[in-house]
Design goal:
The complex is a heterotrimer of chains A (about 725), B (about 525) and C (about 100). Chain A has about 725 residues and is mainly alpha-helical. Chain A has helices at about 1-5, 25-45, 50-60, 90-115, 150-170, 180-195, 200-220, 225-255, 260-270, 275-290, 300-305, 310-320, 325-330, 330-335, 340-360, 365-385, 390-425, 445-460, 465-480, 485-490, 495-525, 535, 545-560, 580-595, 605-630, 645-650, 655-705, 710-730, and strands at about 5-10, 125-135, 140-145, 490, 495. A 3-stranded antiparallel sheet of chain A has the order 1-2-3. Chain A has a two-stranded antiparallel ribbon with strand order 4-5. In chain A, helix 4 packs parallel to helix 6 and helix 7 (about 200-220) runs antiparallel to helix 8 (about 225-255). Chain A is globular. In chain A, about 55% of the residues are buried. Helix content of chain B is about 75%, strand content about 5%. Chain B has helices at about 1-5, 10-35, 40-70, 100-120, 125-145, 150-170, 175-205, 215-220, 225-245, 250-260, 260-285, 290-295, 295-315, 320-345, 345-375, 395-405, 415-430, 430-455, 470-490, 495-525, and strands at about 80-85, 90-95. In chain B, a hairpin with a 4-residue loop joins strand 1 (about 80-85) and strand 2 (about 90-95). The radius of gyration of chain B is 22 Å and the shape is globular. Classes of the chains: A mainly alpha (about 725), B mainly alpha (about 525), C mainly alpha (about 100). Chains in contact: A-B, A-C.
């Protein structure tokens, strides 16, 4: 059936292996979506349309009394006095949802096995299924392609995805929208896999927009709250601005080299004029800035934390937001041709990393700290792929997926615990505000320990994963500042070399801030005295095993993930540079193109020096936070006084949202409403031209109607006068 | 299937049959009333809608055969039927289809039975007249899409106008009189000028000794001076631009949509707006290629199309009335069609045709949904809702899917059309295309904002708590519309294949015509 | 002879016209119109001596029409009278634009 139509790359070493089943990878989550979606619809239908009694029992209560931005079990609010019944299909959904993910992960692992075993994998393995859009001789094929890069992404998505699905079984346990949640989550994974497996930009774009849709649906999952619905909409619209860039980049590619599939583009990229390449890359980067939350489009990601925490972990930390990094790595051929665009990526990445880190210093909402941390770490990844260290960028993407998913799930575990406690005591306190936490290490020992691993990893403490990947990026920047096509180029009049050193400096400084704000988060959450309240305290407890097990697995991965790509100089730890070599067929040539034809090598002394410096900075950051911050002095949220001075600017996120609102959102809406609709449409076109011409016509009609007096005598006089005139005219002639 | 159709001589009678079946149904509605007594008798009413639905279902089944018998490889007219009408004037009854007409016919016959289903309970008075008018309207619309004789085309154009005037004017909302007269006058001004232009062309052939209204021969022999060409094109342009509607001829549309009953809005948006773009494709541009391709005219039209895209989207964003919002979104979508047609690349024209089909399905579906919720709550205002996703989840799911298709999410039909238009137009008109692409952002803004305020957020009006979800009849309508939304989004190839030859023909007609005539006029000078 | 007849007809016609123009009562105006018609009839008859029988035939036509007109006209006047209680034309301007 389907497979018979598949025209795969003939003679590819992977044909005939399990890799032939790669179409099943996205299809499995799609199947999960269909099944869970059916469960959701059937349960609605069985209940009968809009039965208010049934409704209150089911209560999407989150909306009505939402004090908490993230009610771990939203159903609880409607019914305080008895445990809300679980969704009737919850059991089935909790099997289907994670099962399809684990199956997909199993398949991904076996395909990975086949790939590791095969040799001569220079070319991607492309499977064509059907022609999507044929236009004349040009055809956009519905095709998937498997290569080393997409394989890594598939492993991360299905692996971390499966763990997060498992976590959700516990976290969303009592939610009235349980099957719907899994349906959306499965659908997300489907689109994410389409994104990374697509063999051409348009197919990738399907996944690209599809994940945006799922993100929209999941952020607004508890849509009865206006803030949640707003956040979902904001995410989608900001992403659409990025998609505009993606589209224009595709148009440019098509108009100039008539190729949109990755193989074709890489073959013909050389034909592009330099200015065109730069334009294409910049437009692609606009797309990345939208999806991966970079300046100026990062504003949606912190708001996206309105979604359930597993969603934040899966979509807004581990997978979807890294799609931009993937896109640049995928388009490395193009970016390598344009130093200007590459430098733009690196500069924007560095500035985003810094900006987000500063904001992260002063946030109180635990998920917002993590959100800004994500934005900041994404900035690092863009610095990596921007300077042409594509493998390093992907490396950080992978390790970040581990430790940030762990951090989010850990925060989910914390919120879950607080929520249960507040629920038991009917408190309305904010379960996400760190000022309401404190001292949780005694109640959540597993979460506490695992989150510290992740915190050390993100801060760059060896030998945890983040240390290796962050170091790889910073070393890459440093090396290229000395010698590369980027160093020779100029960016807005600034010579590339000094610019790269500046980026390196920003990277280091951001690492310091990262260590500070992450330690701050840990201190306020787990250390010091407990601020949850006397009665609540007795209800605090570790979450069930379905939630802690994924944490443990992610903890292990965060700890050892660095072994994927050990620097040469640390060869004593194991085989060096595995990921680098693995990705070589995909990004090797572009990397060399950036570095001027030869692999970058720093002198060993320099490298030791750099590593030592980075570690020292991380340690300083942690110690600084430990020494300066006093968790004991914190008061709960309702007693807290607002920040003053610069801290207030940071707490209010540099007022960027407000600035966008004043300079873009309101003017656009205002102009549309007043100038376009009221003035142009209603007054000018409709009032003046349309109804105006009607009024002119009826004015003359009314003039004419005055002749019609209705009095017979007048008419008779008129007739007689008329006759006399005619007669007179005849006589006088 | 093909053999069976060949056995019954399908290709020879199908087009006249498509014109006659609805007329027959309309007559049947009146025949069924004879001897039944009072006009508004319930039995009459019921029989009218049953007859109308059955007739249009038959119409759809009959037209569906065209999907298979149509030969995408042939570039000539297919299923041609020709009968003498007024031979002294050279006016004949000539009908035939190409790939463009084919898809427009199928769209029409697909939407019409659904719009009867959509009116099932919402239209409550003068049912026989209402359904008879719907049937006559069907004949008119099919006629417009298949006429190959300019006089016949004009007659059909007017036949389709009158029933819609009555449908809005009798079964419409509060300001229905204003809206229907505005609709009528707007359309009439354009179409009368078109009649003048058609007669001018005819007089030319009459002076040459062989009077004819035949599209094919006019296409070949038309020979007018530059000024005359400009004026004639202007006349056609006005007729079609009003119908599209292009900025700034669009203000009848929001009023007509808002006041029309559900089926009226669906037909208006789903099918009748395509008459305008169809007119450009079939008549205005191929007949006067040199005028269209002259830089001034072309730039003006491109500008109007792109302004329509952005302007329609921005104005849609601030509408408090959901029907008006969708009406302005139509201005935006049809702008994409015009851009695609004017860009004159195979991709963009194919894309424009896809947008025409998609807009018919998606916007039709949106109007159906508005009608469904209006029937329950009697308000079109966005503010009157809020949070109803919790109360009517199926409705919410359908509205979300349809809105996503309307904003062109990949995987739905909307994306295929817009993508092809933009990627094709970029090749010839990069600047305009980039501006047009911003419409993608605004589209997301206006529709998502609207569905957020309708479906999500807390329920603020108590009466919304008692809304009932879609019933089986309504689910049938929505399922019928959602299936093509996904199908076209994923596998549009069969449709694109059927239209490709005609799209290429259109492009070569315009390009070659423009080159020849420009060369001829240069030699004349 | 014919001159006198035509003169007499003209005088009658002018009396009719002046009546129509100056009087307010619908009945009187109506009678003046009849007067005008009969003036025309008189000239028809007189001229038929010169131009043949057609003039007299026309008179029959005119009388027929006048009779029909009288029937309809009087009916209208009566219905107006029922409505207004008088037949003063100054009060009757239903057709005013």
């Amino acid at each position: 059936m389907l497979l018979q139509q598949v025209a795969a790359t003939t003679g590819h070493p992977l044909s005939g292996t399990v890799a032939d089943w790669m179409w099943l990878l996205p299809l499995l989550p799609l199947l999960g979506f269909v099944l869970n979606g059916l469960l959701a619809v059937v349960s609605v239908y069985r209940r009968g349309p809009a039965d208010p009694a049934a409704e209150s029992g089911h209560g999407h209560g989150a909306g009505h009394e939402a004090v908490h931005a993230d009610p771990a079990h939203a159903g609880a609010h409607g019914t305080h006095h008895h445990v809300p019944p679980r969704h009737k299909f919850a059991g089935l959904a909790s099997i289907i949802g994670p099962a399809v993910l684990f199956a997909a992960f199993g398949l991904a692992v076996s395909i990975f096995g086949a790939m590791s075993g095969a040799s001569h994998l220079e070319q991607p393995y492309v499977q064509r299924y059907f022609t999507w859009m044929p236009v004349g001789d040009f055809r956009i094929e519905a095709a998937f392609q498997l290569d080393q890069l997409s394989m890594i992404m598939v492993l991360v998505i299905t692996g971390v995805g499966a763990l997060i699905h498992l976590f959700s079984v516990g976290y969303m346990r009592d939610d009235p929208g349980y099957p719907r949640f899994f349906a959306y989550l499965n659908l997300f994974v489907f689109f994410m896999l389409v994104l990374v497996l697509g063999a051409s930009y348009p197919v990738m774009f399907v996944g690209w927009e599809g994940v945006g849709l799922c993100s929209y649906l999941l952020i607004g999952f508890w849509f009865s709250d206006k803030a949640n619905a707003d956040a979902g909409k904001k995410a989608f619209i900001v992403n659409r601005i990025g998609d505009f860039g993606f589209l224009v980049a595709m148009f440019l590619l098509y108009a100039n080299i008539a190729a949109l599939d990755f193989v074709g583009v890489s073959q013909r990229a050389g034909e592009l004029a330099p200015a065109i390449v730069t334009a294409i890359c910049l437009f692609f980067f606009l797309g990345c800035a939208g999806k991966s939350a970079q300046i100026p489009l990062y504003v949606w990601l912190p708001d996206a934390m309105a979604g359930p925490t597993p969603v934040s972990a899966l979509i807004h930390a581990a997978t979807m937001v890294t799609a931009g990094v993937y896109l640049i790595a995928r388009s490395a051929v193009l970016f390598a041709l344009s130093p200007v665009a590459s430098l733009t990526v690196a500069v924007v990445g560095a500035l985003t990393a810094l900006l987000a880190a500063t904001i992260g210093l002063k946030q109180w909402d635990i998920k917002r700290v993590l959100a800004y941390s994500t934005v900041s770490q994404l900035g690092y990844m863009f610095v990596g792929v921007g300077v042409g260290a594509y493998a390093a960028g992907i490396f950080h993407l992978v390790t970040h997926a581990f430790f940030k998913a762990l951090l989010f799930l850990g925060s989910g575990s914390v919120i879950f615990a607080l929520h249960r406690a507040y629920h038991a005591t009917h408190s309305r306190a904010d379960a996400q505000d760190m000022r309401n936490m404190g001292g949780l290490r005694r109640y959540l020992p597993w979460t506490f320990a695992l989150m510290w691993i992740a915190t050390l990893a993100i801060s760059g403490i060896p030998p945890l994963s983040g240390f290796f990947s962050k170091d790889e990026i910073l070393a890459g920047v440093f090396a290229r500042a000395g010698h590369s096509t980027l160093a020779e180029a100029t960016w807005l009049g600034i010579p590339g070399g000094p610019l790269l050193y500046a980026i390196y400096g920003i990277g280091l400084f951001t690492a310091l801030l990262t260590a500070i704000y992450m330690t701050r988060m840990m201190l306020y959450t787990f250390h010091g005295p407990n601020r949850t309240g006397e009665t609540e305290r007795s209800h605090l407890a570790e979450a069930p095993w379905v939630m802690t097990l994924p944490l443990v697995v992610l903890g292990i991965l965060s700890a050892i993930g660095g072994w994927l790509n050990i620097p040469e100089i640390m060869g004593f730890l194991g085989p060096p540079q595995w990921l680098h070599h693995w990705l070589d067929p995909v990004v090797g040539a572009p990397t060399l193109a950036v570095t001027g034809g030869e692999a970058v090598h720093l002198a060993h002394r320099t490298e030791y020096f750099l590593i030592g410096g980075a570690v020292a900075i991380a340690v300083v950051g942690i110690l600084f936070a430990v020494v300066r911050l006093k968790p004991a002095r914190l008061v709960t949220k309702d007693q807290a006084v607002p920040e003053r001075g610069f801290a207030r600017v940071l707490a209010n996120k540099w007022y960027v949202d407000e600035a966008y609102d004043r300079t873009i959102v309101r003017p656009v809406v205002g102009v549309s409403r007043r100038l376009l609709w009221t003035v142009t449409d209603k007054w000018l076109i409709d009032g003046l031209l349309v109804n105006g011409s009607a009024r002119v016509t009826s004015f003359f009609g009314r003039l004419g109607s005055y002749l019609q007096t209705g009095s017979v005598s007048t008419y008779a006089w008129a007739i007689v006068l008329g006759v006399l005139v005619v007669l007179g005219a005849f006589t006088l002639r | 299937m093909l053999e069976f159709l060949a056995d019954i001589g399908y290709e020879r009678w199908v087009l006249p049959a498509l014109l006659l079946i609805p007329l027959g149904g309309a007559i049947l509605i009146y025949v069924a009333r004879i001897g039944r007594g009072r006009v508004d008798d319930i039995a009459n009413a019921a029989s009218a809608r049953v007859i109308a639905f059955a007739t249009l279902l038959v119409e759809f089944i009959v037209s569906a055969g065209l999907w298979w018998t149509f030969d995408p490889a042939r570039s000539t007219w297919q299923n041609v039927v020709m009968k003498a009408w007024i031979p002294e004037w050279g006016a004949n009854f000539v009908v035939g289809i190409d790939g463009i007409s084919l898809m427009m016919i199928l769209l029409t016959t697909f939407i019409m039975p659904l719009s009867v289903l959509g009116s099932w309970t919402s239209v409550r008075e003068k049912l026989p007249a209402y359904y008879a008018l719907l049937l006559v309207l069907t004949t008119g619309m099919i006629g417009v899409f298949i006429s190959l004789d300019l006089l016949l085309f004009y007659v059909m154009w007017e036949v389709m106008l009158i029933p819609m005037y009555f449908i809005i004017g009798i079964w419409g909302g509060e300001r229905r009189i204003y809206a229907s007269i505005k609709f009528f006058l707007y359309t009439m001004i354009g179409s009368l000028l078109m009649l003048v232009a058609i007669l001018y062309l005819w007089i030319q052939t009459w002076q040459a000794g062989a009077p004819t209204f035949s599209y094919d021969s006019l296409l070949r022999t038309i020979d007018v001076s530059r000024t005359a060409g400009l004026l004639l094109f202007g006349a056609f342009f006005l007729a079609f631009a009003v119908k599209v509607p292009m900025f700034p001829f669009h203000t009848w549309l929001p009023d007509a949509h808002v006041e029309a009953p559900t089926a009226g809005s669906v037909i208006l948006a789903g099918i009748m707006l395509k008459m305008g773009t169809y007119g450009f494709l079939r008549f205005a541009m191929p007949l006067f290629p040199d005028v269209v391709m002259s830089p001034a005219v072309r730039t003006t039209m491109l500008a109007l199309a792109v302004i329509g895209i952005v302007y329609g989207a921005l104005v849609a964003m601030v509408q408090p009335d959901f029907k008006k919002l969708v009406a302005y979104s139509s201005v935006s979508h049809l702008g994409f069609v015009m851009l695609g047609i004017l860009a004159l690349t195979l991709e963009s024209v194919q894309g424009a045709l896809m947008v025409m089909i998609n807009h018919g399905i998606s916007t039709g579906a949106l109007f159906f949904l508005i009608g469904m919720i209006y029937e329950r709550r009697h308000s079109r205002m966005i503010d009157a809702y809020g949070g109803i996703a919790r109360v009517v989840p199926l409705f919410a799911a359908m509205l979300t899917i349809v809105s996503l298709s309307s904003i062109g999410l990949p995987g739905t039909n909307g994306f295929v059309g817009e993508f092809l238009v933009l990627i094709g137009s970029f090749r010839t008109e990069p600047i305009w295309t980039v501006i047009a692409t911003t419409g993608v952002i605004f589209a997301a803004a206006y529709l998502l904002w609207a569905i957020q305020r309708i479906l999500f957020q807390p329920v603020t009006h108590a009466e919304n708590e008692r809304l009932t979800d879609l019933n089986v009849r309504e689910m049938v309508i929505m399922a019928a519309l959602v299936i093509p939304i996904l199908w076209i989004g994923i596998y549009p190839k069969p449709i694109l294949d059927r239209m490709e030859r005609s799209a290429a023909q259109f492009i070569s007609d315009v390009e070659r015509g423009a080159a020849e005539r420009t060369a001829a006029s240069r030699m004349g000078n | 002879m014919i001159q006198e007849a035509l003169f007499f007809s003209a005088v009658l016609f002018i009396i009719g016209v002046i009546g129509v123009l100056t009087r307010r009562n619908a009945i009187i105006i109506f009678m003046c119109v009849e007067l005008m018609l009969n003036a025309v009839n008189l000239s028809f008859v007189a001229l038929s001596r010169l131009y043949g029988i057609a003039g007299q035939v026309f008179v029959i036509f005119v009388m027929t029409v006048a009779a029909a007109e009288a029937a309809v006209g009087l009916a209208i006047i009566i219905s107006i009278f029922r409505h207004h209680e008088n037949v003063d034309l100054r009060n009757i301007n239903l057709m005013r634009g």
